[in-house]
Amino acid sequence: MTQAARIHIADIDFPSFFAPAFDNSLEASKKFYEAVAPAGGYSDAKIILHQTARMIWLADQIDTVAAGRPAFQILFYLTAAELIAKILAKYEGEGESKKHVQKFFSEICDSPQKERLERAFKRVGGGFLTLEAAISFLYRIRCDVVHRGQYYQFALPSGLHEVPLLTGQGDDNIIAEITLQELRQIVLEGAVLAAKRIAGIH
What we know:
Mean pLDDT: 89
Number of helices: 8
Distance between the termini: 42 Å
Structural class: mainly alpha
Strand content: under 5%
Number of strands: 3
């Protein structure tokens, strides 16, 4: 077992974890983290960063026990998206999961992330799904796992140059043209945008 495999969720190095959202600059990530997540204190921005990192870290571990089953990672990514949107909105109620997932991708994420999602899925013989439809599709995958334990009918290409994959179920006939790594990056960057908004950083 490698050292990386033995890392515990409590040992996440948050500046290192978020470095990919800063063009892999550890220095920029550390400076940002120190500005929004003061040592020994709590803030909504800090909670967003910590909880997002934990959800994505858990998703990162899935391949060791269920390789090639991206529906599990989607579940963790959308859990992070939901909690980010709820914290930002100071939502104290229950439910409204889909509404807040939609808010994360359509209102918290910026143009680059939204544009990538608008080119993520397309119908056979048709055009790409709209942003709203792409988010709804991902949310349905999440619900298939949560409510039906169904995780094996969803597939994503594993690399940027791999042939797009027919995915989904039933009459959807959806072709996936986004990788799991790209979806991970979108959520990571969205978390940083949310933390910046709460901290008043532009």
